[in-house]
UniProtKB/TrEMBL annotation:
Coiled coil: none
Domain called EAL: residue spans: 23-272
Lineage: Bacteria, Pseudomonadati, Pseudomonadota, Alphaproteobacteria, Hyphomicrobiales
Protein name: Bifunctional diguanylate cyclase/phosphodiesterase
Covered range of the whole protein: 493 to 766 of 766
């Protein structure tokens, strides 16, 4: 991919040292980005498919580098996970997302991505608690998006952490559902409130095979008492199909790309002068 090559060749300049040095340079640039305030958040609507109401937003991090321009999280999140910077970055994302959302004149849900590395290297429960306390955002409106990779090690500590997050009042959403290796067995027994059907299933709709998967996930989720959201909704035909088969919520370019809050109607509460 050209964009990927862009940041790679810019930071990992092949003329400047070996891979280890190049990684160190990008790691350094990421650390500086955090202290220099080069990260910012965009928000993508999650829409009630029956009414069209924006019931939630997902916070998605961006890196505005003074030289390389806008860098996608697909490029820097994996490295931040490897180097451990994801812990500090993840703390910033949580706090910043809650801070902004606490100020909006809007009562919907806020979704924040938390990667497996944050659980492994950091204290996610402590970070979430601190972000909620310092911003006043209510836990009852917070969703934490995790992925199936969190469960590969079958770690009891992970389940305990998720249960603590639920005890705070937050909900756990399983992101990219259907792309992992062992989706079904653990859905019933793990502390997961919500399933996000991966965009690879939605983007290909209409398609008989994908429809079987989407409808099976919906049926299973309903039986297990889990909420469902479909990602990657790009066309009105997809939206109508999903609504028809009873998928309650959708997210995708059809409704809006990840956006600045003002662009999707999220404005700061009027502060009463009196
Ligand atoms: P994700 O959590 O699965 O986020 C959804 C990605 O799909 C976003 O890419 C979003 O812009 C994109 N998307 C949404 N709707 C559509 C659509 O209709 N069509 C298509 N083609 N794409 C759509 P983005 O923002 O580039 O983020 C990529 C990934 O980076 C995220 O995937 C997530 O895994 C990670 N990421 C983003 N922000 C954070 C963060 O704050 N913390 C962590 N740990 N990871 C993050
Ligand atoms: Ca996500
Ligand atoms: Ca996803
Ligand atoms: Ca993903």
């Amino acid at each position: 991919v050209a964009r990927r090559g862009g940041i790679r060749s810019a930071v990992f300049d092949p003329g400047h040292g070996n891979r280890i040095e190049q990684r160190r340079r990008l790691d350094l640039a990421l650390r500086r980005a955090l202290t220099d305030g080069q990260f910012f958040l965009l928000f993508q609507p999650q829409v009630d498919l029956a009414s069209g109401t924006m019931v939630g937003v997902e916070a998605l991090v961006r890196w505005q580098h003074p030289e390389f321009g806008l860098v996608s999280p697909a490029e820097f999140v994996p490295l931040a996970e490897e180097t451990g910077l994801i812990v500090g970055l993840g703390d910033w994302v949580l706090r910043e997302a809650c801070r902004q959302a606490a100020g909006w004149d809007w009562q919907g849900r806020l979704s924040v991505n938390v990667s497996a590395a944050q659980f492994r290297l950091g204290d996610v429960v402590g970070s979430v608690r601190a972000a909620l306390e310092s911003t006043g955002f209510p836990a009852s409106r917070l969703d934490l998006e995790i992925t199936e990779t969190l469960f590969v090690d079958n770690d009891a500590g992970i389940v305990a952490a998720l249960e603590q997050l639920q005890a705070l009042g937050a909900r756990i959403a399983l992101d990219d559902f259907g792309t992992g290796y062992s989706s079904l067995s653990y859905l019933a027994r793990l502390p997961i409130d919500k399933i996000k059907i991966d965009q690879s299933f939605v983007r290909g709709l209409p398609d008989p095979q994908r429809e079987v998967i989407v409808e099976t996930v919906l049926l299973m989720a309903r039986r297990l008492g889990k909420l469902v959201i479909a990602e990657g909704v790009e066309t009105d035909e997809q939206r109508r199909y999903l609504a028809t088969v009873g998928c309650p919520i959708g997210q995708g370019y059809l409704f809006a790309r990840p956006s600045a809050p003002e662009a999707i109607g999220l404005r700061s509460r009027q502060v009463d002068a009196a």
